[in-house]
């Protein structure tokens, strides 16, 4: 086993980093004597953001209404399927999908559906809660006996017993909020998430804590994987060799350059790399290697928790409620879940709710662009291209050739726009 872990860590070291230029950010000055800073709190005050191929405007689609719990009002939504194109044309498209067909396509499958959210969006969370109800009803009508579960990035693994006590009626919602240390460990407005918890309890849907414990993530940010005891690392990384091989792939390399590296640069510009995720002051600024190690432990841990539940509940459907950054372009959580599922009959579907131009571009790259924060932004990136394994990524001329394309990473399987 120790040989497998050593191999995995060696493979991680081969991950390439090709930084992207990030403009338009004002550094956040922090007093040098400050020993602790709440990094999460700073990030909640900043608009979240995310080269590829773009498509202008959304095609027309029929709207579907999802009933709210009180049946007095409804949320309408339109659904679109992303059709990637890895041919020499590199011409991805959006295809309107009848919302009823969208619901049926995911309701009857076993596996995971990853709902990429904006943490501060009441609209996103209301849609999630109502989708839970509709999928639950659809599975009952289809006589699907396997259970549903809601996977929560918002709650760390150590608090699973608290979630169980809530769904089993042993504690109130307010006691659950207190028990999972919401205000300190997540911090986004709990009231936006209230319908999700209430719907889960009413329908007796299990809640699963997905997130890495911040104490463990903080250790990795301070000193890499070697700093975290092996028994704690194993909680999140069940397949160390697969974990290492995944990080070595050209697909992940491209994803890291497009999504993770710009995020690191934003943290750097905001002065946040002198602190761990739980606010501990570092002696030196966090390196990209440690930042990357923390980020992929986060994704691997959430995929692992979901995979474990799905394996233990054949045919079961988990809805993962996580940030859009963990879902888009597949190589955050989804591709890891697929890797772990192997030959098992587990579907993995990705959905981005109310995406904007910001979501589909490198973080900070469209700061100040008119309409970038609007769901009706003029264009969104539908796929990013990666090179063949034998291509030299530093050769600018070869990179441009269509025949250099190894494949594409699509933004998401589905895009949802709520009314």
Please describe what this structure looks like.
It is a single chain. With 419 residues, the chain is an alpha/beta fold. The protein is built from 16 helices and 12 strands. Strands 2, 3, 4, 5, 6, 7, 8, 9 and 12 form a 9-stranded mixed β-sheet that branches. A 3-stranded antiparallel β-sheet has the order 1-10-11. Strand 2 and strand 3 form a beta hairpin. Helix 3 (99-107) crosses helix 4 (122-141). It is globular and about 60 Å long. 44% of the residues are buried. Residues 13-37, 39-57 and 67-73 have low confidence and may be disordered.
Helix run count? 16
**Alpha-carbon Rg, integer:** 21 Å
User: Hey, roughly how much beta strand do the residues contain?
Assistant: 15-25%
Give the structural class.
Answer: alpha/beta
Number of strands: 12
Pick out the low-confidence regions: 13-37, 39-57, 67-73
- The proportion of residues forming helix, as a percent range, comes to 25-40%
Largest sheet: 9 strands, mixed
Average residue pLDDT: 85
What is the H-and-E element order? HHEEEEHEHEHHHHEHHHHHEHEHEHEE
Q: Outline, from the CA principal axes?
A: globular
Distance between the termini: 51 Å
Which properties best describe this structure?
globular, three-stranded antiparallel beta sheet, 19% strand, 16 helices, nine-stranded mixed beta sheet, 419 residues, alpha/beta
